[in-house]
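Thread amino acids onto this structure.
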């Protein structure tokens, strides 16, 4: 049995059926922006392995960082022990994240960093003598991960987790922000969120959102003023703001962190994905000194969370190399060039009968179709045209590595056009 046959019969992939799995392609090499498949094709990666591989694959600097650290030690428990890679990483993070964040909790996946953020917010209020502040509020169309607390703030109607609704803690959902990033701000957009704050602030621990780009819940890109006003509401009504920058962090939207579009600092910030340039599984939850001290006031006096692979030294070493590499480059120009090219090459699809919308920001391009896309069929077209793109529901979207050449971006845009033509 070859690898893809074994895979089909025994391995469960994300968001797929074990009975009717989607076709699966075997990667035998990955370098720069390209994946080589066992069939021999070399295709341009449009997904950055789900927002992660901003420097592309097999980067000498990241390889070197992993090699150097593995010669020293690859893991030690983070309880009672610390190490240089984690200390260096947390120093770097605190230098680059929005001002005011001062403590770092390292985790091992994006979903877990969201769980940690939610637990921090609830514990913070309980330790302030306000245990009734345990509910969350979040805009619809959000996505924050697949674990239970994270699922509870994913969109319950359009979302992927509706089936689990009865097992999830119920929170408050505001309509998704409607004013697009590039349009004139419409003050009405924040009114429903304000309404929820006015009615329920006494029970609210935190507002949870993805700043500027709502990812897996719909690939929507909204106006920075919405984010600014959410910050103001949180201040006015004594509610913590949790920003999930797991997808948007590290330059993807044209700013190092999407919060910078609105010049705000959240009380709690979640990072993951591109933190290690997509090499290792690592995430972080950062918070202000006020939150950290508040969480540890009174009983129990500690924060009860501690993943086994917390602060994994290999992952931290690669994260350090990835951040250094990003900051050593004119990454903003690279992302802006990708944005300009995506606008030039994808905008024509706006007038296509089958296309509902085209949205572009930074190194993110989204073509929303009017109908659901048949993933298996359209992927054959993409691969035939030399591109790795994985759409979901109606959205064909790309977030290529920042090192993508103009030829790579053209190849991706051309493949999207061919895919749209075949829908
Ligand atoms: N939040 C956002 C915004 C995400 O895009 C994702 C991953 N798609 C997550 C949380 C969950 O991260 P992970 O898959 O690493 O658990």
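Threaded sequence (423 positions):
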């Amino acid at each position: 049995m070859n690898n893809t046959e074994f895979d089909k019969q025994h391995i469960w992939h994300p968001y797929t059926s074990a009975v009717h799995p989607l076709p699966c392609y075997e990667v035998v090499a990955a370098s720069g922006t390209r994946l080589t498949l066992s069939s021999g094709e070399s295709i341009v990666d449009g997904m950055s392995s789900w927002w992660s591989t901003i420097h592309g694959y097999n980067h000498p600097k990241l390889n070197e960082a992993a090699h150097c650290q593995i010669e020293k030690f690859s893991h030690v428990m983070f309880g009672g022990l610390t190490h240089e890679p984690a200390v260096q990483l947390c120093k770097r993070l605190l230098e680059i994240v929005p001002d005011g964040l001062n403590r770092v909790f390292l985790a091992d996946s994006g979903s877990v960093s969201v769980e940690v953020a939610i637990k921090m917010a609830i514990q913070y209020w309980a330790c302030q003598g306000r245990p009734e502040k345990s509910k969350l509020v979040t805009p619809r169309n959000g996505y924050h991960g697949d674990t239970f607390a994270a699922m509870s703030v994913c969109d319950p109607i359009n979302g992927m987790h509706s089936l689990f609704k009865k097992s999830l803690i119920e929170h408050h959902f505001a309509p998704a922000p409607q004013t697009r990033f590039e349009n004139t701000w419409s003050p009405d957009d924040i009114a429903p969120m304000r309404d929820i704050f006015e009615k329920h602030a006494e029970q609210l621990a935190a507002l949870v959102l993805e700043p500027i780009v709502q990812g897996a819940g719909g690939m929507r890109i909204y106006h920075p003023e919405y984010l600014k006003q959410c910050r103001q509401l949180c201040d006015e009504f004594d509610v913590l703001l949790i920003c999930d920058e797991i997808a948007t962090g590290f330059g993807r939207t044209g700013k190092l962190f999407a919060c910078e579009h609105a010049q705000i600092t959240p009380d709690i910030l979640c990072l993951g994905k591109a933190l290690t340039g997509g090499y290792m599984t690592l995430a972080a939850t950062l918070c202000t000194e006020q939150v950290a001290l508040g969480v540890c006031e009174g009983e129990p006096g500690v924060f009860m969370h501690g993943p086994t692979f917390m602060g994994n030294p290999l992952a931290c070493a690669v994260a350090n190399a990835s951040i250094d590499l990003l900051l050593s480059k004119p990454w903003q120009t690279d992302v802006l060039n990708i944005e300009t090219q995506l606008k030039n090459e994808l905008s024509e699809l706006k007038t296509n009968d089958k296309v509902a919308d085209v949205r572009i920001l930074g190194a993110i391009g989204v073509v929303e179709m009017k109908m659901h896309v048949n993933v298996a069929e359209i992927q054959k077209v993409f691969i035939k045209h030399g591109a790795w793109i994985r759409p979901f529901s109606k959205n064909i979207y790309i977030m290529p590595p920042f090192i993508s050449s103009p030829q790579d971006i053209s190849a991706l845009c051309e493949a999207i056009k061919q895919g749209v033509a075949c829908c």
